[in-house]
Specification:
This protein is mainly beta. It has one domain: Porin (Beta Barrel), CATH 2.40.160. It contains 4 helices and 21 strands. It has an 18-stranded antiparallel barrel. The chain is globular, with a radius of gyration of 22 Å.
Length: 461
């Protein structure tokens, strides 16, 4: 395992020590960022509840005594239509049905400090002639299986927990470590996780040492034998809603294939300017180490400002942002410059067509969200995509021009989505996306417009 650079370690320690000293005004709870797809699941999936909570809905009085048992079932069917997919060599067009079932059981408080949780996943794909990938299908799998030592009101009245086993969770704004939402098969890790504080604490520190789980379509998943992910993520919420800070450090070690030892450090911050309707979100990350025998130096950033019109029944918000992730300026030299987004989510962050990730990318975007009815939410995106380095590849499609002669403009994308929460148990969603290719695409091969649409229904019990 590579060592942590002294300047990164000292800076991180200083930041972690200073953050708890900052305090803001009292509020009803921490402000939650309004940036797209940045809703963190820190521990228990959002479809899970205790049987005591379910007792009122299902009108089963005897369940009220089972407040120590967490239970949840989620089933999602999603039908997709793709027209000329740039991620395939022959620009395949196809219709695909995805099916995902999740089942969670957890025990808490009954035998504290010892707690347990297990989550099963069954993800399948139908109607496609392509060979199945482990991102699309993961048959009858254990997604989570962990034990936990949980101590409430330990340090300054805040909880401390140690979790060990298999886990799936989000870190920060999900750009670097995520429990992915849209993809049919979910990321998981084996290892240990230590948390000081909880989701609503003024200060939380989340640390972990994990092996990524290697997914298989029909064989039980196993821990990677040659990769580790170490992380320290702080959360300062004491100045909510004006300023919330989330400093982080990750060390990713990979010893097989392309050998990598990457240090990633940065800060995610967000908040709102009280009384003005304005909010903001930003994330700046630097990366160093070695990749494939080359010295690695890279960086990435997200900067966003949004405005919500107060007093309007539809709650309209207009957000404007730019995402940037460095590329490799010269693929032939001894320096690596393409940012590695580790295990982060990309779908809602960078486009519904799944053509873009936080690597070799410059993507300004505009987003409008409205809520025409209590249970109906709609959003529209307009994105323009460019390569950060014209000599590096368009990562999601593996297209490239080593000479840089095809330019940097990849194209524009329009995304539309509507989500209707029919009831507590049923949610229906539909989306559409259209991609208009730019000069880079035309200079590196076929360059038709492409379209993508989907309809999904999720049942929760």
């Amino acid at each position: 395992m590579s060592t942590i650079p002294t300047h990164i370690l000292s800076g991180l320690v200083s930041l972690v020590l200073v953050l708890p000293l900052l305090r803001g005004a009292d509020s009803d709870g921490p402000f939650v960022t309004k940036a797209a797809a940045a809703n963190r699941v820190s521990a228990t999936p959002d479809y899970v509840q205790s049987l005591a909570e379910a007792a009122q809905m299902w009108e089963v009085p005897s369940w009220k005594r089972l407040d120590w048992l967490d239970f949840g079932v989620s089933h999602r069917d999603r039908y997709e239509v793709r027209d000329q997919d740039y991620r395939t060599v022959d620009l395949i067009s196809e219709d695909v049905l995805y099916d995902q079932t999740l089942l969670y059981l957890g025990i808490r408080e009954l035998i504290d400090p010892l707690r347990f949780g297990v989550e099963f996943q069954d993800a399948r794909r139908f109607f496609s002639d392509r060979s199945e990938s482990a991102n699309e299908a993961n048959h009858t799998e254990i997604l989570q299986a962990f034990g936990e030592l949980y101590f409430g009101d330990t340090i300054g009245g805040e909880p401390v927990s140690v979790r060990f086993g298999r886990m799936a969770f989000d870190s920060g704004d999900r750009r670097l470590v995520s429990r992915n939402r849209y993809r049919n098969a979910i990321n998981a890790f084996d290892g240990a996780r230590l948390r000081f504080g909880g989701d609503a604490s003024d200060f939380e520190l989340d640390t972990f040492a994990l092996r990524p789980v290697t997914r298989s379509v029909s064989v039980l998943d196993e821990s990677s034998d040659d990769a580790w992910l170490y992380g320290v993520h702080g959360y300062l919420r004491g100045r909510s809603p004006a300023l919330l800070l989330e400093p982080y450090y990750f060390l990713s070690d990979q010893e097989a294939g392309t050998v990598r030892h990457l240090h990633t450090t940065g800060v995610h911050g967000y908040g709102q300017i009280t009384g003005t309707g304005w909010d903001y979100d930003w994330n700046v990350a630097g990366q160093c180490g070695d990749s494939g025998g080359r010295v690695h130096r890279a960086w990435a950033a997200h900067v966003e400002a949004g405005y919500t019109w107060s007093g309007h029944s539809w709650k309209p918000r207009l957000g404007l942002w730019i995402d940037h992730a460095s590329g490799d300026r010269d693929p032939t030299d001894d320096r690596s410059g393409r940012f590695d987004s580790l295990f982060g989510d990309s779908w809602a962050h960078y486009g519904y067509e799944s053509y873009f990730v936080w690597q070799n990318q410059v993507e300004p975007a505009l987003r409008l969200t409205i809520q025409p009815a209590t249970k109906l939410r709609c959003e529209a995106f307009v994105r323009s995509a460019w390569l950060a380095s014209e000599r590096d590849i368009w990562v999601a499609t593996r297209r490239g021009d080593p000479t840089g002669g095809s330019g940097r403009h990849v194209g524009e994308e329009i995304d539309l989505r509507a989500t209707w929460k029919v009831s507590h148990h049923l949610e229906v969603e539909a989306g559409y996306s259209h991609f208009f290719p730019g000069d880079f695409v035309a200079g590196t091969g076929q360059s038709p417009d492409t379209s993508f649409g989907y309809v999904a229904a999720m049942w929760r019990f």
